[in-house]
Amino acid sequence: MGNKLRHITRWIALGVALAAPALTFAQNCALCYTQAAGSGSRMIAALRSGILILAIPPTLICVGITWMAYKKRNQFNDYGSEDTTESNEQ
Q1: Non-local CB neighbours of 39 within 8 Å, separated by 6+ positions
Q2: How far apart are the C-alpha atoms of 43 and 85, rounded to whole Å?
Q3: First to last CA, the chain
Q4: Which range is least confidently modeled, 3-7, 48-52, 74-78, 85-89?
Q5: Which of 7, 47, 87, 89 is most buried, with most CB under 10 Å away?
Q6: Rounded Cα gap, residues 62 and 18, in angstroms
Q7: What is the pLDDT of residues 3-48, one digit of tens each?
Q8: Alpha carbon distances (Å) from 5 to 11, 12, 16, 41
Q9: Is the model's pTM score more than 0.90?
Q10: Using an 8 Å Cβ cutoff, are 50 and 36 in contact?
């Protein structure tokens, strides 16, 4: 019974996770939309540049943290195995 309940819960969680982005895309700021629609091409280009400028640093930070975690993933395992090997040799 517990295994079946766990299986159903996972499917429900998957459905909610897939439905969440659709709900977030539906919420637009009316003021932003009307300002962008009524502005000229220069303003639209500045808005696009601003979006890129605000999106790139967090992306680079996430990539950097992921890269560091990947490089350090076996550091503690390797360190512990060297200690046990040295103590066994003496």
Answers
A1: 47
A2: 65
A3: 54
A4: 85-89
A5: 47
A6: 22
A7: 888 888 888 988 887 776 665 665 567 777 787 778 888 888 888 8
A8: 10, 11, 16, 55
A9: no
A10: no
- With 0-12 / 13-18 / 19 or more C-beta atoms within 10 angstroms meaning exposed / middle / buried, residue 63 is exposed
Amino acid at 20: A
User: Number of helices and strands (H, E) in the chain?
Assistant: 4, 0
Name residue, tokens 């280009």: 45
DSSP secondary-structure letter at 73? Answer: T
d(CA 38, CA 27): 20
Please work out, in degrees rounded to the nearest 5, the angle formed at the alpha carbon of residue 23 by the alpha carbons of 20 and 26. 150
Task: Please name the residues in contact with 43: beta carbons below 8 A apart, sequence gap of 6 or more.
Answer: 36
Domain ranges, ordered by start, for the chain: 1-38, 39-90
Q: What is the DSSP letter of 39?
A: S
Query: Which residue carries 């390797």 as its tokens?
Result: 78
Token pair belonging to 46 = 């500045």
